[in-house]
Write a structure and sequence with these properties.
Two copies of one chain form a homodimer.
Chain A: H1 2-18, H2 31-36, H3 49-61, E1 71-72, H4 81-93, H5 104-121, E2 129-133, H6 136-151, H7 155-158, E3 166-170, H8 177-184, E4 199-206, H9 218-228, E5 231-236, E6 260-263, E7 276-280, H10 285-290, H11 323-356, E8 362-364, E9 375-379, H12 390-397, H13 400-411, E10 415-421, E11 424-430, H14 439-453
Parallel strand pairs in A: 1-10, 3-4, 4-5, 5-6
Antiparallel strand pairs in A: 2-7, 6-7, 8-9, 9-11, 10-11
Helix pairs in contact in A: 1-3, 4-11, 5-11, 6-8, 11-14, 13-14
The complex binds pyridoxal-5'-phosphate (2 copies).
Chain lengths: 456, 456
């Protein structure tokens, strides 16, 4: 107990530090170097609890401060105190979601929360089904699995040899998990994006693409799906949370026509990792698709209502309790708390966009105001601004972002992601999901990019 | 911060209570009743932090005390203080495993630990590959995915239509996740367990079956796999941990011949949920099988050694940090600490077996000493012991375990699982994985079964 309290004291100090702008976002070391900096090896003999505390401190010393107001590197950032407390409680309760028997409260909370999310999507009375899965990639895979099963239920027993060759449609900017899903399910990545002669069974529209933050036109896509009787999935892993904002939810107009929706509270809502939901319009389908009737878990003669044993809907057997942190945060903030947090992040990104769109040395990667918090741009150091030869310029520009990023990590002052895309050379992809970020942090980011990239 | 400390105080009190035999394992209520007992609804408006603390207390009040020394209901039980501290730290660090960039220490610790596990399996110098996945079911699915890809790499792009009909082999007592995997991957459940004319590609031997705790003869199975050039997977989700025991590891003789091994530290090693590893003998295969080269995560021009960006091996995109709790517990206990914990659980189950095998009113479900901690038995109340008619007896006996179990939950004194299997009517499946359990707890269980079942 006193050991646990000592660890808590270390953690509380770490949290205070993480929110402090004077602290480095990262104390970066190359893998080989980090391997040397501490003894990380596993031994036969036990260590003392004091040594264990030393390991905890070392681990935190080299960890990324994902709660830091200047950490912009991923879609998941920030640290909510209620969410964290809920995650600690979850670890302490240490149970599995597969049956009501071993997770009575958590099963109910999952029920309540999924229903609420379906109401927000706009399905009548919040009806339908759903599950929390270990991330958006798996949620998307569930959707594809359900779509295939819906069209060809025999696939469960007979496999893909019993069905025609299938095609799944999605945009070029969709998340790679759609292709991973197709590969895993035996559909094949070549069947994603329109191959002639194949039977279309699945369309995934993205609500908030990973890189540009773009929203596919859901109503138009749903019309086509309806016409051809194809499963309509909305991947709202990143953009789904905008449904909670009265100002921004129009970007998802038509989402209520979806057969399934992926929505990751662990991204834009700052719920601690992992927390991803798949919502399904049709009730019962998940159960039919995935159930295997394991009689050691799902005995039919239990003394309570068996519909609360949700485990057989899942691809997983044991399933981590991901619900409590979302539920508790929702109680603490209310829907309006999430709304204002989301609105604020979008304001910050609009501020960034307005600040750099006409600023010398910046070029935007796509036209127009960002739809989500993604702002994609190139920074051209002064020495490159007057190069006329397009090819020469791109060649040099391609190297700018990686160098600035490496320097950011070495100084530890901030972190933002960069990448190439198609024929576009490396650009910065700025995203904001941390409620702790402010206008000053955006100003800082721009200054820092210029400071670190000026000489390139 | 003071809010977090208040939650910690609640959690510490809960932990003390959980280990106290005077505390109920569960304060059971039927779903509808539990729904009424508290206000679990989500609202638009925020709640005060005091209300949040009330919710935390209510959640714990109705939670199962999985750490309780008399909780025997699942394969995952117990609560290790170092493991818990590590999980709290993990939540606080709140990051993703996909790149070294955002999880430098955790990526290294995963590397160190997977290597150690491969050494224990017996692969030369610990070479090979692996990943921590969200549970044994997913680990098994990975294995099947890799086996298919190994034999038919074109399946990734072209799907199942490019390959012959496949067959996977496993025993009747294998875990249902093998069938779930086959259904998801488009192989079909009918292809699991030998269909003529199909091409065998995958054999899953179970090291510690879920219900009987039996070990398939790995050497014999591996010989057959070698002869027919079929992927040899060992599902050691439950039994893999016996590799850490010098006394018991012979039960897995031949495991070093496997192409892949599932091993769940969250079961027999009492690591907090979720913690499951898939170990793979061949290096590079996971990467080839699963990679999609998402350039927003896995930029090729990063400034560090890219082999530490393990994310593209995974089916997932974001991946929860499951490694730290295992690593920290390993440091605290040493390999010998895990060994003695495992040996002790096996001793307890032998004690139980010896105690009931000739005791009046008990019948064992299978012959001989248990190989793992599973002890499967029927309890016959006095009034049923002299029934001669087999059918009549079975009919009545089938109802005994569910009633005793329901009574256990109502009194909250202990919990143990029961189930039917094939033509065998409901029996108790006792398993022991909680290091806090003692001989007295086993005595208690027997007394309690008799107390609650005497009148049936
Ligand atoms: C649009 C989209 N879908 C799915 C995912 C996958 O989510 P996760 O990382 O939770 O698996 C992402 C992750 O960035 C995403 O941006
Ligand atoms: C033999 C075996 N394999 C796989 C699994 C699945 O493990 P998990 O619950 O971690 O998905 C289990 C779970 O009981 C098991 O007993």
């Amino acid at each position: 107990m006193s050991f646990l309290q000592e660890v808590v004291d270390i953690l509380l100090a770490y949290i205070v530090e993480s929110f402090d702008r004077e602290t480095k976002v990262i104390d970066f070391h190359y893998p080989n170097e980090l391997m040397q900096r501490n003894n990380w090896e596993l031994q036969d003999e036990p260590e003392s609890l004091d040594d264990i505390l030393v390991s905890c401190r070392a681990t935190l010393k080299y960890a990324i401060k994902t709660a830091h107001p200047r950490y912009f590197n991923q879609l998941s950032t920030g640290l909510d105190m209620v969410g964290l407390a809920a995650d600690w409680l979850t670890s302490t309760a240490n149970t599995n979601m597969f049956t009501y028997e071993v997770a009575p409260v958590f099963v109910l909370l999952e029920y309540v929360t999924l229903k609420k999310m379906r109401e927000i999507i706009g399905w009548q009375d919040g009806s339908g089904d759903g599950i929390f899965s270990p991330g958006g990639a798996i949620s998307n895979m569930y959707a594809m699995l359900l779509a295939r099963f819906k069209m060809f239920p025999e696939v469960k027993e007979k496999g893909m040899s019993s069905v025609p060759r299938l095609a799944a449609f999605t945009s070029e900017h969709s998340h790679f998990s759609i292709k991973k899903g197709a590969a895993a399910l035996g559909i094949g990545t070549e069947s994603v994006i329109c191959v002639k002669g194949f039977v279309p069974f699945f369309v995934s529209a993205t609500a908030g693409t990973t890189v540009y933050g773009a929203f596919d036109p859901l109503i138009a896509v749903s019309d086509i799906c309806k016409k051809y009787n194809v499963w309509f999935h909305v991947d709202g892993a990143w953009g789904g949370s905008l449904l909670m904002s009265r100002r921004h939810r129009w970007k998802l107009d038509g989402v209520d026509r979806a057969n399934s929706v992926t929505w990751n509270p662990h991204k834009m809502m700052s719920v601690p990792l992992q927390c991803s939901a798949l919502l399904v319009r049709e009730e019962g389908l998940m159960q039919n698709c995935n159930q295997m009737h394991a009689c050691y878990l799902f005995q039919q003669d239990k003394h309570y209502d068996l519909s609360y044993d949700t485990g057989d809907k899942a691809l997983q057997c044991g399933r981590h309790v991901d619900i409590f942190k979302l539920w508790l945060m929702w109680r603490a903030k209310g829907t309006i708390g999430f709304e204002s947090q989301i609105d604020k992040c979008l304001e910050l990104s609009e501020y960034l966009y307005n600040k750099i769109k006409d600023r010398e040395g910046y070029e935007m990667v796509f036209d127009g105001k960002p739809q989500h918090t993604n702002v994609c741009f190139w920074y051209l150091p002064p020495g490159m601004r007057h190069i006329v030869d397009k090819e020469e310029k791109n060649k040099r520009l391609h190297k700018v972002a990686p160098v600035i990023k490496a320097r950011m990590m070495e100084y530890g002052t901030t972190m933002v992601s960069y990448q190439p895309q198609g024929d576009k050379v490396n650009f910065f992809r700025m995203v904001i999901s941390n409620p702790a970020a402010t206008f000053e942090d955006i100003d800082f980011l721009i200054e820092e990019i210029e400071r670190l990239g000026h000489d390139l």
